[in-house]
Amino acid sequence: MSEYALDIDLADFTQHVIEESKRRPVVVDFWAPWCGPCKSLKPILEKLAAEYGGKFLLAKINSDENQELAARYGVRGIPSVKAFVNGELVDEFSGALPEGEVRAFLDRLVPGPADELSRQAAAVRAAGDAAGALELLAEASRMDPGHIGVRLDAAEIMLDLNEADEARRLLGGVPDDADPRVPALKARLQFMGVTGEDEAALSARVAANENDLDARLKLANLLVAAGQYEAGMDQLLEIVRRDRAFEDDIGRKTLLSVFNLLGGGELVSRYRRLLASALN
Question: Which of these, 6, 57, 121, 128, could form a disulfide with 133 (CB 3.0-4.6 Å)?
Answer without folding.
Answer: 121
